[in-house]
Design brief:
single chain; 151 residues; alpha/beta; Rossmann fold; five-stranded parallel sheet; globular; binds 1,3,4-trihydroxy-5-OXO-cyclohexanecarboxylic acid; DHquinase_II_sf; EC 4.2.1.10; 3-dehydroquinate dehydratase; 3-dehydroquinate dehydratase activity
């Protein structure tokens, strides 16, 4: 079984309760269920959330050994964290950056993303569907990579 990490940054533990007019009424458990359903055969997801930058970095380091891709909603660290960008730059498999809201329609400080300097794909404004789309893309890329490795 190939594992995909679905990483979530600060305040996303409150998904469903936090500003539902922006982020909707569904919760992280719904994200986990939808991501598991989006997996191709032979893939599985592990959903993780932390409000702490260092914990997210530790999970990215751990992912180097154990995963075939990361779907990542870094929350506000998207716009501030060079340390998370540096951690992602040590990680080889695909990274898909996801934002539930359409960040480019919001405040100017949300328009810049450090994570986008590393991400292989960026999804914003699709609501929770963005996570499932990220998982599908990683399954596709990982399968393609395995086929290339066999050639
Ligand atoms: C977010 C957008 C960020 O700007 C914000 O800080 C979040 C959530 C999103 O999913 O739309 O916490 O990443």
């Amino acid at each position: 079984m190939k594992t995909i990490y679905v990483l979530n940054g600060p305040n996303l533990n409150l998904l469903g309760k936090r500003q539902p007019q922006i982020y909707g009424h569904e919760t992280l458990e719904d994200v986990e269920r939808q991501c598991a359903a989006a997996c191709a055969e032979g893939f599985g997801v592990r959903l993780l959330q932390s409000n702490h930058e260092g914990q997210l970095i530790d999970w990215i380091h751990e992912a180097r050994e154990t995963t075939c891709g990361i779907v990542f909603n870094p929350g506000a660290f998207t716009h501030t964290s060079i340390a998370i960008l540096d951690a992602l730059n040590t990680y080889e498999p695909p990274v898909i950056e996801v934002h539930i809201s359409q960040v480019h329609k919001r405040e100017a400080f949300r328009h810049h993303s450090y994570v986008s300097l590393r991400a292989d794909g960026v999804i914003a404004g699709l609501g929770l569907e963005g996570y499932a789309a990220g998982v599908r893309r990683i399954c596709q890329l990982a399968t393609r990579q395995t086929q290339e490795d066999l050639q």
